[in-house]
Amino acid sequence: MNxxxxxxxxxxxxxxxxxxxxxxxxxxGHTWSFSAFIRDxxxxxxxxxxxxxxxxxxxxxxxxxxxxLWSATPEGAVDYCNARVLxxxxxxxxxxxxxxWMKMIHPDDADNMARVWARSVESGDAFQFVFRCLRASDxxxxxxxxxxxxxxxxxxxxxxxxxTVVDFHDWRQxxxxxxxxxxxxxxxxxxxxxxxxxxxxxxEVTQPLAAIMASGDSCTAWLASQPPNLEKARAAADRMIQAxxxxxxxxxxxxxxxxxxxxxxxxxxxxxxxxxxxxxVHHEGQRKNVSLRAxxxxxxxxxxxxxxxxxxxxxxxxxxxxxxMAGLDRQPKQILIRSALPNPGELLVSVADxxxxxxxxxxxxxxxxxFTTKPQGIGMGLAICRSIIEAHxxxxxxxxxxxxxxxxxxxxxxxAPSE
Length: 419
Fold this sequence. Notes:
Largest sheet: 5 strands, antiparallel
CATH topology of the largest domain: Heat Shock Protein 90
CATH class of the largest domain: Alpha Beta
Low-confidence stretches: none
Strand content: 25-35%
Number of helices: 10
Structural class: alpha+beta
CATH superfamily of the largest domain: Histidine kinase-like ATPase, C-terminal domain
CATH architecture of the largest domain: 2-Layer Sandwich
Distance between the termini: 72 Å
Radius of gyration: 38 Å
Number of domains: 4
């Protein structure tokens, strides 16, 4: 009495259907009467069956899909992991529930990951964290990324968290190997370019050495005079120190370009870097009757990047321009390098020449690896330049000048080295 029960009823045509029956007793004096309420629950049963089928299909999908999936309560406690997670970690469902998943996180990553997860649970913001996870099959830590989004009710309250874990260790290793290979190629390219500039480098070093010798002779003469002219001898000694410092700086810059060192981000003054690079190629330009000119924007902000790599880009572009004009009979043969700030957040550098320009049939392959129009070239210079600029968050492109010749532009974002 007074409770709802589910039974099967018969329709007039003899077909069965589910109903909900409630019988309520009612006493009147010494007489009892009973009221029965019957409600057809066919639609509800159908909906429940559909929901069960949907849940079963969802469970089958989560257990079959080749990705690691998990869910958590609104409070952040993990309440489900699919078979992929259990197989990967070697933990049981009971071991991984709640905060048990922390057992599989590398100790150096665990605290930070827990803190980021707690912040997402508190704020309701999407969760993502890169960490090292212990793989049970070989007992090694591998790089993974976990992401999760909240399922919300109509009022915005979090009902559930659903997330994934992706092992990207092999991809990361491949990317690291690719970066190392690119660094090796960039180093080879630098060495080859500096080999072409041997005469220019020798000329750059010879100048301060000649100044040292001249100042040394002057110093000796002033000291030998009667009486010794100490003031002029001191000035000559100062000039010797200044010239020696200049020579030392040239050698340091050459060694930096030759040396194979890991990428190091610093604040780079692009105008200073352009002028430094021009000093390297100045003698080469004179030798091939190519004049160099700079039009550098004043007060430009620094950019964050690897100084040696960015110098390599400018050096490559200037050497390419010199070589493309070296065999031309027409005048003038000129390179103009500009720096400017066309947009508040971007710095533009352009290297323009008065050479033959870019052939239309070569335009699409200009930056392709191993493509070259030079008899002795290996076709990696421009490809390396583009990879360096893109690694710095910028872009590199080329076009023909309206007045003739080609111009290569690269744009770099203005940001701190650590960003």
